[in-house]
């Protein structure tokens, strides 16, 4: 049987995300954030860690640059160059028509064709010049 105070106590329940430094005798709380709403259960989502799909580094697929001078830029693969004994270079064109090249290790695919499978950040991954800003 539920008491009259139980619904009020459930409303007071708060959820936190906590960063803990472990490894010693005691775990030390480094940082905590109060979360809105109910917590998400671990393992929720697609069963058995299934992938949504596999996107290859083919010419014409959308990529996002994660390293180097072009970090944050998004574009379509136009060309791939293999250099013997060295890294592979990918030539990319963004939606404004600007072309740039980067190492294959600095990019990952985010969509097939020219349509990304993920939502893009503000600016849609386009690098503006100083005049355009």
- What is Rg? 23 Å
Task: Let me know the largest β-sheet.
Answer: 5 strands, antiparallel
Pattern of helices and strands: HEEEEEEE
Q: Provide the structure class.
A: mainly beta
The largest sheet has its strands arranged as 6-5-4-3-7
> Could you tell me the number of beta strands?
7
Name the average pLDDT.
Answer: 75
Structure report:
The chain is mainly beta. The chain has a domain at 6-35. It has 1 helix and 7 strands. The chain has one helix spanning 6-12, and strands at 15-21, 28-35, 62-65, 74-82, 88-93, 99-103, 107-111. A 5-stranded antiparallel β-sheet has the order 6-5-4-3-7, with no helix packed on it. A two-stranded antiparallel sheet has the order 1-2.
For this entry, give a set of tags.
133 residues, mainly beta, two-stranded antiparallel ribbon, 5% helix
Tell me briefly what this model is.
The chain is mainly β and 133 residues long.
Which SSEs are present, and which pair or pack?
Elements (H helix, E strand, L loop, with lengths): L5 H7 L2 E7 L6 E8 L26 E4 L8 E9 L5 E6 L5 E5 L3 E5 L22
Antiparallel strand pairs: 1-2, 3-4, 3-7, 4-5, 5-6
GO molecular function: structural constituent of ribosome
Keywords: Ribonucleoprotein, Ribosomal protein
Protein name: 40S ribosomal protein S4-3
């Amino acid at each position: 049987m539920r008491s009259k105070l139980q619904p009020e106590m459930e409303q007071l329940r708060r959820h936190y995300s906590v960063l803990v430094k472990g490894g010693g005798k005691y775990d030390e709380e480094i940082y905590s954030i109060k979360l809105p709403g109910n917590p998400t259960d671990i393992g929720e989502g697609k069963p058995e860690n299934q992938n949504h799909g596999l996107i290859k580094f083919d010419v014409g697929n959308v990529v996002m640059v994660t390293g180097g001078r072009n970090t944050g830029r998004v574009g379509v693969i136009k060309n791939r160059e293999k250099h013997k004994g060295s890294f592979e270079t990918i030539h990319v064109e963004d939606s404004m028509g600007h072309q740039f090249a980067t190492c294959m290790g600095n990019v990952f695919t985010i969509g097939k064709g020219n349509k990304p499978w993920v939502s893009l950040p503000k600016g849609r991954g386009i690098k503006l010049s100083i005049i355009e800003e």
